[in-house]
Amino acid sequence: MNTALQQNAYQNSQTAYKQASVETSSPEKLIIMLYSKAILLLHQTEKAFEEKKLEEIHNNLLRVQDIITELDRTLDMENGGEIAQNLRELYRFYYMETIKANVKKDPSFLRPVLDFLEAFRNVWIEAARISRLGAK
């Protein structure tokens, strides 16, 4: 098998694995996955800023914005009360920070976004752990 076919087969299996992982994950796990992907992209973006890779910066930040939008969509505004409203405001604020970083090509806007996402991912990890313990 030639290298291109091997690589294509590998990519197809990776895509299938990721899709199966998403389709079989709990809602908590999916939210943690979203946070983790945004964090990974922001770390890659910081590196891209250092290397002055403008297209990579732009593309990564668009993906982070998509993830923040998706996290916002998961909020239960009817039952979430003040917590959901506060989270919505935080998501919108950090979404705008990624836009500023992209437009101004200034990585200083990203550190607060990264800190927020890491902190909330950790909260979700702990909540999922507690939930699993309670289910046993």
Report on this structure.
With 136 residues, the chain is mainly alpha-helical. Helix 2 (27-50) packs antiparallel against helix 5, helix 3 (54-73) packs antiparallel against helix 4 and helix 4 packs antiparallel against helix 5. The N and C termini lie far apart (48 Å). The chain is built from five helices and no strands. The chain has a domain at 45-136: Up-down Bundle (Four Helix Bundle (Hemerythrin (Met), subunit A)). It is globular. The chain has helices spanning 3-24, 27-50, 54-73, 81-104, 110-135.
Topology:
Blueprint: H1 3-24, H2 27-50, H3 54-73, H4 81-104, H5 110-135
Helix pairs in contact: 2-3, 2-5, 3-4, 4-5
Helix fraction, binned, reads: over 70%
Name the structural class: mainly alpha
What's the CATH topology label of the domain at 45-136? Four Helix Bundle (Hemerythrin (Met), subunit A)
The span between the termini is: 48 Å
- Determine the mean pLDDT: 88
Pattern of helices and strands: HHHHH
Largest sheet: none
CATH architecture call of the domain at 45-136: Up-down Bundle
Counted by DSSP, the helix tally is 5
Unreliably modeled segments: none
Number of beta-strand segments: 0
Question: What proportion strand?
Answer: under 5%
Question: Tell me, what's the shape?
Answer: globular
User: How large, in whole angstroms, is the Cα Rg?
Assistant: 17 Å
By CATH reckoning, the class of the domain at 45-136 would read Mainly Alpha
Task: State the fourth-level CATH superfamily of the domain at 45-136.
Answer: Flagellar protein FliS
